Amino acid sequence: MSLPDWAPAGVDTTVPNAARVYDYALGGYHNFAVDREFAERAMQAWPGIGRVAYANRAYLGRAVEWLVDAGVRQFLDIGSGIPTLGNVHEVAQALAPDARVMYVDIDEVAVMHSEAILAGNPRAAAVQGDLRKPQEILANPRVQELLDLGQPVAVLLVAVLHFIADEDDPAGIVRELGDALVGGSYVAVSHFTRTTGLDSEQDRVTKLYDQTPTSVRARTPEQVAEILGGLELIGPGVVPATAWHPDPEVDEPEQPAVLAAVGRKSVAN
Ligand SMILES: C[S@@+](CC[C@H](N)C(=O)[O-])C[C@H]1O[C@@H](n2cnc3c(N)ncnc32)[C@H](O)[C@@H]1O
């Protein structure tokens, strides 16, 4: 099969991939037949899952706006995905042109496409990295070149922690990232959670993801709060993503299946 020009040589087009499935769910076109088939099966199993993806993406945009408003000018977006509607650098730089954004993703298609759309933007870049190895991300020369870790940074972990198994210690990962940041830095997260009345739909989707290299797990609001343990939770705490600083001008139905929260490293730490 010949690859489209946006696909890196050697990419595995036989296995569904979380970045490309999400891209398809959001109406993007950087995906292969295997990703589209998987996404269609997931949408059949849980017809509301597409709306959950949109609600998650909308939260990402609001969180970035809120963080810029709070004075943050540097973003480390890990598990950033394939560029699509409302990219972090677009949202942040529209409000603060001096904002710098480092995208990190484990998926080479996401990184390659991010690099292509960021060409010519001196304040945004993309590198491949694995959230399970936070020290490698922080030590990456391109991360160090773009971001000044001596100044506050917002780490964005949006819809990625649910791909991290308990054995890989998500709380430890967030702690390591937090330890590397100065006081006044933030960590913004969103995370899949179980919702009453959707048990069988969510079971079916979880089982589908179990057949891919990136299984997905739900966590409770308490578990998400624990993951952000060392940070002070910004109001309203851990809530459905649609309830995290909602835009009063947008009438968005609640999506309880995705939780959101932002933690801040206290200046005294
Ligand atoms: C559902 S997408 C979320 C994209 C974007 N953050 C958003 O919320 O719109 C999840 C992304 O996490 C990436 N990912 C999964 N496991 C990862 C890991 N261990 N390290 C870095 N990225 C990872 C996937 O490749 C995918 O692009």
Structural features, described:
This protein has helices at residues 18-25, 33-45, 49-69, 88-95, 108-118, 134-139, 141-146, 170-179, 199-210, 221-227; strands spanning 74-78, 100-105, 124-128, 154-158, 186-192, 232-233, 239-240, 258-264. By secondary structure, it is an alpha/beta fold. The protein has a single domain (18-264), classed as Rossmann fold. Strands 1, 2, 3, 4, 5, 6, 7 and 8 form an 8-stranded mixed beta sheet that branches. Strand 2 (100-105), helix 5 and strand 3 (124-128) form a beta-alpha-beta unit. Helix 1 (18-25) packs across helix 2, helix 2 (33-45) runs antiparallel to helix 9 and helix 3 runs parallel beside helix 4. The radius of gyration is 17 Å and the shape is globular. The relative contact order is 0.15. The mean pLDDT is 95. S-adenosylmethionine binds at residues 18-19, 22, 56-57, 60, 78-81, 105-107, 110, 130-132, 158-160, 163, 214.
Question: TL;DR?
Answer:
By secondary structure, the protein is an alpha/beta fold.
